[in-house]
Amino acid sequence: MICRTANRRFDPRSASIAGLAFALMTGGALAQVDKAGDRLDALKERDQQLQSLRDEQKKTAETEASLKREIEQIGADRRKLNQDLIDTATRIRAVEERIAGAEARLKPLDENEQSIRRSLESRRAVIADVLAALQRMGRRPPPALLVSPEDALTAVRIAILLGAVVPDMRSQAEALANDLQQLVTVRNGIEAERARMKTAIASIDAERTRLAALTEERQKQQGEREASLNAERAKAQDLAKQADNVKDLITKLEQGLDSATKAAREAARSDSRPAMAALRDPGRLAPAVAFASLRGQIPVPVNGVKIRDFGASDGIGGVEKGISLATRAGAQVTAPTDGWVVYAGPFRSYGQLLILNAGGGYHILLAGMERISVDLGQFVLTGEPVAVMGSASHIAAILATGSSQPVLYVEFRKDGIPVDPGPWWASQVEKVRG
Questions:
Q1: Is 349 within 8 Å of 335 (Cβ atoms)?
Q2: First to last CA, the chain
Q3: What's the angle, vertex CA 261, arms to CA 260 and CA 266, rounded to 5?
């Protein structure tokens, strides 16, 4: 048999087609290998993520178990439990202030960054000329100006030093360098503030976990009187349905107390209470100091800014009977003074309402919270956590302020009559600007 292949003329097109086919086949094989490698890398990455998640869950479980053991030991001593509740709530409010401060500092920095970027954008032609001059001196392309201002700043400085810009453009290049330096400084400031805020957020999460465990322990102790407490709750709800207003509700609640409880709370009416040192005893079961003598010493119950003041128009023909504070979502609410919880639950248009009997005929009303963490009959101490704000305003229409933030309404009453809380605050409540 004669082999005719040897007598064929060489056809470049056939060779090209054959080469292309070979390339496609080998390329396809390589592509398959690459895909398999990618899948393997993806699986390895997924395994690493799962292992990291398992490690994190294990660490969280160990932390929670350790915290539970610690709090069970603390719970055996009511004084220690009360003090730890107050200390933890204080730390949470301090971290809330740090986060708010970081956000306040970030706002002008962000605005400054945007202003500089707009200025640089308006001088795009000058920037292009300077960077193009530098590009002509070397093979590397000019850096992306707004993506990496640090590299762009270095490039412009090198261009100036090497005389790569013509003399009449030098002043513009130097101005550009100054703006880029300012942009770098601002961005570094933004990154530092965000790092501080991230640390603060991690800290507040840990503190809130601790506070939740402490509150659970406190409520567990309260649960020992759960049967009588349920009866008190039902009675309070019945009275709330019968009451036409807050004054009427307070009157009905106080009238329903037994004689021994009335006597104990009436004792707090005297101005000749123990010295201020008694405030340091976390085991006290009655106000350490008469409320009337605490003017200028009471802490504001939540971090926030005042958006409605006592005596201001309420927008419907009347005047405000208390103050309204715009807060952060999830802000911690603490007791502004020692007192007994006489009401804790929903009431008409107030939403969630907490009423504290501070003694001496004084009552403190707090409304607008999402969750109340104390119960009827409980004696709470100054600074003790009593409620948490939600993520939006829960204040009813009669207290509406137009704010999209959560709003806490605070009212002081003496013998049922609203009084200006201003003279009692230990520090001036910041008023919202504008």
A1: no
A2: 103
A3: 100
The region of weakest confidence among 72-76, 109-113, 299-303 is: 72-76
Question: Which range, 9-13, 29-33, 97-101, 421-425, is most confident?
Answer: 421-425
Q: Give CA–CA dist 314/320, Å, rounded.
A: 5
Residue 63, both tokens: 């932390």
pLDDT band at 247 (very low <50, low <70, confident <90, very high): confident
Domain range 227-424, CATH class: mainly beta
The phi and psi torsions of 304 (rounded to 5 degrees) equal: 180, 180
At a CB cut-off of 8 Å and minimum separation 6, what does 9 contact? none
Identity of the amino acid at 3: C
Contact 424, 363 (CB under 8 A): no
Judge whether 340 and 357 are in contact, CB under 8 Å. yes
Q: How far is CA 308 from CA 158, 246, 360, in A?
A: 57, 19, 27
Alpha-carbon distance of 335 to 317, in angstroms, equals 31
Q: Is 208 helix (H, G, I), strand (E, B) or coil?
A: helix
DSSP annotation of 315:
S
Going by their DSSP bridges, the two strands 371-372 and 332-334 should be labelled as unpaired
Q: Which of 121, 119, 116, 151 is nearest to 134 (CA)?
A: 151
What is the length of the chain?
434
H helix or E strand, kind and range, residue 429: none
Phi, psi for 356 (deg, rounded to 5): -110, 135
What's domain 78-219's architecture?
A: Orthogonal Bundle (1.10)
To the question of pTM greater than 0.85 for the whole model, the response is no
Return d(Cα 274, Cα 333) in angstroms, integer. Answer: 27
Task: Provide the residue ranges of all domains of the chain, joining segments of one domain with +.
Answer: 22-75, 78-219, 227-424
Phi and psi, residue 258, nearest 5°: -75, 165
The answer to whether 375 and 395 are in contact (CB under 8 A) is no
Q: Which secondary-structure segment (H or E) carries 10? A: none
Query: What phi-psi label fits residue 273: left (phi over 0), alpha (psi between -120 and 50 degrees) or beta?
Result: beta
Task: Tell me 433's DSSP state.
Answer: P
- For residues 156 and 128, what is the distance between their CA atoms, to the nearest angstrom? 11
Query: In sequence order, what are the residues at sequence separation of 6 or more whose Cβ sits closer than 8 angstroms to the Cβ of residue 301?
Result: 333, 334, 335, 336, 366, 386, 408, 410
